[in-house]
């Protein structure tokens, strides 16, 4: 049995097909204008969830790369400060060696003036700043302001006797301690003579760190105590001249200066002086200058290692960024060339449907009755 096809049936079918074709054109037009495959989560939930996960990962990578950039700036300033201190000791060493141990009184006066200026510059280098923060003091002191930080706010200062203070703690109290005594004092806050200094462990751990990766904390500064205190031998110890001890760089430079100005005092025999330093004693101090140079050189190498680590981490994040960006693109971005081709095909189909519908729907009942 053949069912009767009415004009309204043709019209409804035509309109339905035209609507479907127009919806396809609209979808492709949205893809072309937005550059995305899907407009709603319901279009492809799994792909869009995958793309969102890639987007979140890219956001974390951007955060870590910004942190790495800041860490690099801090490490550059730290390296500059440590190298400047190392060069200062190098100038003093060269001046002392060039004298050849045959200094006249006038030579000693001239060299003492030079050493005095270098010692002051060494103190300035210890107070190196980056922005409004002190590089070798961490976060416990105010920074350098437009008019210059007041002397009392700088981490490294001198007391009335010329002793070096680090945030108020007299570092000369750590001079000539053995390595074991030094470590015990720093960890427990108790000096060998029983003096309790509870702030020691805090001061030593006072450094600035950046999170440069998931669970990766990178120190970008150095602690002032570990920077100033270096390991050397105590040649002035008559009982054991090969005993390794910890010395304060600034105190050692003060000994050099006092020796040149005739105010030398044997650190192991305070009653011996003040007097001019002998040539053999000056030679022993020159050896300590070399040890201090090696100590600062090792610190410079440590900073260089941190910088190289940051470069490797940054390179890994660059590769990760490309990988996750490709994942996001595959999940969300439309293939523009394919979209343009499909859009042209959909437009052609839609226009053909309009043309065919116009020819079919055009006849009316009056056209049949004629």
Fill in the keyword field for this structure:
single chain, 370 residues, mainly alpha, 3-stranded antiparallel sheet, 10 helices, 9% strand
Task: Explain the overall architecture.
The protein has 370 residues and is mainly alpha-helical. Helices cover 60% and strands 9% of the residues. It is built from 10 helices and 10 strands. It has helices at residues 7-34, 45-98, 105-126, 179-188, 199-204, 224-228, 249-260, 279-332, 336-361, 365-369, and strands at 129-130, 133-134, 156-158, 164-166, 169-170, 177-178, 209-213, 216-219, 229-233, 244-248. Strands 3-4-5 form a 3-stranded antiparallel beta sheet, with helices on one face. The chain has a 3-stranded antiparallel beta sheet with strand order 6-10-9. A two-stranded antiparallel sheet has the order 1-2. A hairpin with a 5-residue loop joins strand 3 (156-158) and strand 4 (164-166). Helix 2 packs antiparallel against helix 8 and helix 3 (105-126) runs antiparallel to helix 7 (249-260). The longest helix has 54 residues, at 45-98. The two termini are 29 Å apart.
How far apart, in Å, are the first and last alpha carbons? 29 Å
Question: Which ranges are low-confidence, i.e. pLDDT below 50, for 5 or more consecutive residues?
Answer: 143-149
Instruction: For the largest sheet, list the strands in their spatial order.
Output: 3-4-5
Counted beta strands: 10
Sheet with the most strands?
3 strands, antiparallel
Number of continuous helical runs: 10
User: What would the average pLDDT be, to the nearest integer?
Assistant: 81
Work out the strand percent. Answer: 5-15%
H/E series: HHHEEEEEEHHEEHEEHHHH
Shape: rod-shaped
Helix percent reads 55-70%
Determine the structural class based on helices, strands and strand pairing: mainly alpha
Gyration radius from CA atoms, angstroms: 39 Å
């Amino acid at each position: 049995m053949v069912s009767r096809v009415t004009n309204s049936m043709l019209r409804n079918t035509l309109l339905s097909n035209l609507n479907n074709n127009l919806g396809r054109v609209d979808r492709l037009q949205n893809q072309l204008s937005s550059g995305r495959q899907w407009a709603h989560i319901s279009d492809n939930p799994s792909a869009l969830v995958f793309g969102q996960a890639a987007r979140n990962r890219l956001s974390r990578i951007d955060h870590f790369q910004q942190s790495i950039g800041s860490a690099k700036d801090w490490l550059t300033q730290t390296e500059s400060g440590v190298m400047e201190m190392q060069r200062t000791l190098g100038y003093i060493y060269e001046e002392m060696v060039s004298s050849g141990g045959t200094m006249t009184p006038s030579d000693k006066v001239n060299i003492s003036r030079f050493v005095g200026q270098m010692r002051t510059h060494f103190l300035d280098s210890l107070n190196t700043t980056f922005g409004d923060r002190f590089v070798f003091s961490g976060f416990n002191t105010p920074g350098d302001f437009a008019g210059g930080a007041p002397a009392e706010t700088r981490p490294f200062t001198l007391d009335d006797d010329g002793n070096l203070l680090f945030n108020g703690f007299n570092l000369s109290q750590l001079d000539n301690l053995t390595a074991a005594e030094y470590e015990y004092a720093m960890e427990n806050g108790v000096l060998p003579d029983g003096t309790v200094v509870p702030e020691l462990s805090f001061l030593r751990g006072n450094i600035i760190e950046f999170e440069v990766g998931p669970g990766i904390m990178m120190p970008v500064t150095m602690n002032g105590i570990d920077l100033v205190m270096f390991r050397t031998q105590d040649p002035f110890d008559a009982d054991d001249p090969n005993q390794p001890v910890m010395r304060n760089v600034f105190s050692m430079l003060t000994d050099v200066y006092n020796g040149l100005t005739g105010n030398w005092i044997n650190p192991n025999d305070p009653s011996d002086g003040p007097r001019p330093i002998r040539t053999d004693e000056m030679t022993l101090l020159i050896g300590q200058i070399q040890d201090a140079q090696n100590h600062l050189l090792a610190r410079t190498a440590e900073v260089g290692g941190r910088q190289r680590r940051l470069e490797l981490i940054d390179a890994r994040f660059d590769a990760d960024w490309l990988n996750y960006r490709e994942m996001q693109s595959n999940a969300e971005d439309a293939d523009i060339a394919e979209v343009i081709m499909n859009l042209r095909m959909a437009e052609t189909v839609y226009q053909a449907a309009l043309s065919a519908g116009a020819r079919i729907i055009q006849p009316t009942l009056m056209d049949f009755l004629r």
